[in-house]
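Contributing new records

If you add data, match the layout below exactly. Sequence lines come first and carry their own label; structure lines follow with theirs. Keep one chain per record. Anything else will be rejected by the validation script.
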Amino acid sequence: MNIVCLDLEGVLVPEIWIAFSEATGIPELRRTTRDEPDYDKLMRFRLSVLEEHHLGLKEIQDTIRTIDPMPGARAFLDTLRSETQALILSDTFTQFASPLMEKLGWPAIFCNELQVAPDGRITDYHIRVQQSKLTTVKALQSIGFETIAAGDSYNDLGMIQASKAGILFRSTEQIRRDHPELPSCETYDELLALIRKAY
């Protein structure tokens, strides 16, 4: 029994933090898991930048409402879900994800939670479980699923390598160079073909 596990940002929707960086004119917020493998270090840095600029959840959510899925993402996901089970595994937060899930037709997503003060400041974040993507893939395997995984960043490598088939989608040149053993593709048609090959 197959289940396809997909990253969200960079695979189905643009990177939220890059969009917010562009909206605010703060270049430091462009850093993502493509640039920084240590997620805790990355998030602590982001929270310090938000604090410095007096920005909170409302400002980020205002930007998220302007983000649309990548062209072809909804059709790809609809086709995939008509053929097999699919689950989005993301290091984003429930407070960010809802408007994007609506635009993608409400697929299932496992993600994290922000801690938000009454005044809207983001004071902390809570990871669902350490190495959440890899841990979730292993848990799915433990209850009888064979996983197929696709993602674009360092934090996707664990679930990609642990799955019976793993695919780099629109990844960086550095990650592709570091992992030549992993198939890599740039279009949803190619991704769907590689996933179907693994059924």
